[in-house]
């Protein structure tokens, strides 16, 4: 199994980053490839999950071990495949997801693309008490964000929505609403944006 790749980021598309190492280019599917945009042309260590099925071998990539572990855990949920797990990780942070499972927050879980009440319930059933993370349950959303971080987070969220297939025109219609959000986390903007775009 390929645990991680340390190489040169040679290209980024809406779904993958291309990493070259020792003359070999690896296509790695990521929750939000544009997170790595500033590292194009630079060396990068990306943690990978080697997904094997009868007709394909696919590499999924993550910024850290926590994202990789959560991806693997979500795959254990009945009815959720790699595409669904990626959508979750593109829309939220590891911490917020873990807290939502711990608090059985179905409303939060159903904000993810393709996750209805039945799937949210299944996530809680399959994952509560089994996630290998230790987070306190403080409410992150009550913290006052730094304006610079907030702007950066919004920009990152817009790139993520583009990567998920939404057009510039669609995103511009919801941008004023997103700009009113008080958060320093791109995941918050992404989740809000997806909810608005899917109405």
TrEMBL record:
<dbReference type="Pfam" id="PF01330">
    <property type="entry name" value="RuvA_N"/>
</dbReference>
<keyword id="KW-0233">DNA recombination</keyword>
<dbReference type="InterPro" id="IPR036267">
    <property type="entry name" value="RuvA_C_sf"/>
</dbReference>
<feature type="region of interest" description="Domain III">
    <location>
        <begin position="149"/>
        <end position="199"/>
    </location>
</feature>
<dbReference type="Pfam" id="PF07499">
    <property type="entry name" value="RuvA_C"/>
</dbReference>
<dbReference type="InterPro" id="IPR012340">
    <property type="entry name" value="NA-bd_OB-fold"/>
</dbReference>
<keyword id="KW-0378">Hydrolase</keyword>
<dbReference type="GO" id="GO:0016787">
    <property type="term" value="F:hydrolase activity"/>
</dbReference>
<feature type="domain" description="Helix-hairpin-helix DNA-binding motif class 1">
    <location>
        <begin position="72"/>
        <end position="91"/>
    </location>
</feature>
<comment type="similarity">
    <text>Belongs to the RuvA family.</text>
</comment>
<keyword id="KW-0234">DNA repair</keyword>
<keyword id="KW-0227">DNA damage</keyword>
<feature type="domain" description="Helix-hairpin-helix DNA-binding motif class 1">
    <location>
        <begin position="107"/>
        <end position="126"/>
    </location>
</feature>
<dbReference type="InterPro" id="IPR011114">
    <property type="entry name" value="RuvA_C"/>
</dbReference>
<protein>
    <recommendedName>
        <fullName>Holliday junction branch migration complex subunit RuvA</fullName>
    </recommendedName>
</protein>
<dbReference type="InterPro" id="IPR013849">
    <property type="entry name" value="DNA_helicase_Holl-junc_RuvA_I"/>
</dbReference>
<dbReference type="InterPro" id="IPR010994">
    <property type="entry name" value="RuvA_2-like"/>
</dbReference>
<keyword id="KW-0963">Cytoplasm</keyword>
<keyword id="KW-0238">DNA-binding</keyword>
<dbReference type="Pfam" id="PF14520">
    <property type="entry name" value="HHH_5"/>
</dbReference>
<comment type="function">
    <text>The RuvA-RuvB-RuvC complex processes Holliday junction (HJ) DNA during genetic recombination and DNA repair, while the RuvA-RuvB complex plays an important role in the rescue of blocked DNA replication forks via replication fork reversal (RFR). RuvA specifically binds to HJ cruciform DNA, conferring on it an open structure. The RuvB hexamer acts as an ATP-dependent pump, pulling dsDNA into and through the RuvAB complex. HJ branch migration allows RuvC to scan DNA until it finds its consensus sequence, where it cleaves and resolves the cruciform DNA.</text>
</comment>
<dbReference type="InterPro" id="IPR003583">
    <property type="entry name" value="Hlx-hairpin-Hlx_DNA-bd_motif"/>
</dbReference>
<dbReference type="InterPro" id="IPR000085">
    <property type="entry name" value="RuvA"/>
</dbReference>
<comment type="subunit">
    <text>Homotetramer. Forms an RuvA(8)-RuvB(12)-Holliday junction (HJ) complex. HJ DNA is sandwiched between 2 RuvA tetramers; dsDNA enters through RuvA and exits via RuvB. An RuvB hexamer assembles on each DNA strand where it exits the tetramer. Each RuvB hexamer is contacted by two RuvA subunits (via domain III) on 2 adjacent RuvB subunits; this complex drives branch migration. In the full resolvosome a probable DNA-RuvA(4)-RuvB(12)-RuvC(2) complex forms which resolves the HJ.</text>
</comment>
<dbReference type="GO" id="GO:0003678">
    <property type="term" value="F:DNA helicase activity"/>
</dbReference>
